[in-house]
Design a protein that fits this description.
This protein is an alpha/beta fold. About 35% of the residues lie in helices and about 25% in strands.
Length: about 230
């Protein structure tokens, strides 16, 4: 069995530590995600889903416990090391696409490469075009976000998340701002890319229809994992 891509052990997260209004949001999370898994993360509002995703995404620090990413303990890393690890290992898709309106679709996809290296290489540009093709938008490479539908913009965001070839993509309600048809279309592209590239995905969703199309469901309730099981076909 492959070593876990993500390994969380007894992970806790509190805010306002030491203050009278200290609040613990995550109460001891044990979770593993293997390379290439396609996982849905569900739970009611306030259950800690976004906090957990932010910690896995190295956007917030845990309070106590252990988080190993590709076998490396991240708790003691400084901000510069976390930024480098995040760029090399992780991709992000959010509910709102956050595309730059003055950039074309292709330029938006290559933005992570530009930020990481200060330039976009020919290989990275080719990879960006291949990803736009993979999400059905090769013909729209020269268009700006205002010329694209909401679903198309989110597909550009998916391509952007993958351009640095991350081991894991974290998606926080990636279809939450879309109509049913567009949501289904976006999710179909996520599954196709997963099948073709073997990239691992952890997807926060409130939509049970989309969760049913994942391989595994993790349910968070009141800061604890209430369910972790394969999705039945």
């Amino acid at each position: 069995m492959a070593d876990p891509l993500i390994h969380l052990a007894a992970l806790r997260k509190s805010y306002n530590v030491g203050a009278p209004n200290e609040a613990e949001i995550l109460h001891g999370i044990d979770l593993q995600v293997a390379p290439g898994e396609f996982v849905a993360l569900m739970g009611p509002s306030g259950s800690g889903k976004s906090t957990l995703l932010n910690i896995v995404g190295l956007l917030e620090r845990l309070t106590t416990g252990s988080y190993r990413l590709q076998g490396r303990e991240v708790a003691g890393l400084d901000d510069a090391a976390l930024t480098l690890l995040r760029r090399r290992t992780l991709g992000f898709v959010f509910q709102f696409h956050h595309l730059l309106p003055a950039f074309t679709a292709l330029e938006n996809v290559t933005l992570p490469a530009l930020m990481a290296d200060g330039r976009v290489s020919a290989r990275q540009r080719e990879e960006a075009m291949a990803l736009l093709d993979a999400v059905g938008l090769a013909a729209a490479a020269g268009k700006k976000p205002a010329e694209l539908s909401g679903g198309m913009q989110q597909r550009v965001a998916i391509a952007r998340a993958l351009v640095m070839q991350p081991a894991l993509v974290l998606a926080d309600e990636p279809t939450g701002n879309l109509d049913t048809h567009s949501a289904d279309e976006v999710f179909t592209h996520l599954r196709r890319i997963h099948a073709e590239r073997g990239t691992a995905f952890v997807i926060v969703t409130h939509d049970p229809r989309l969760a049913a199309r994942c391989d595994r469901l993790v349910e968070l309730v009141d800061g604890l994992i209430a369910r972790d099981a394969p999705v039945k076909p």
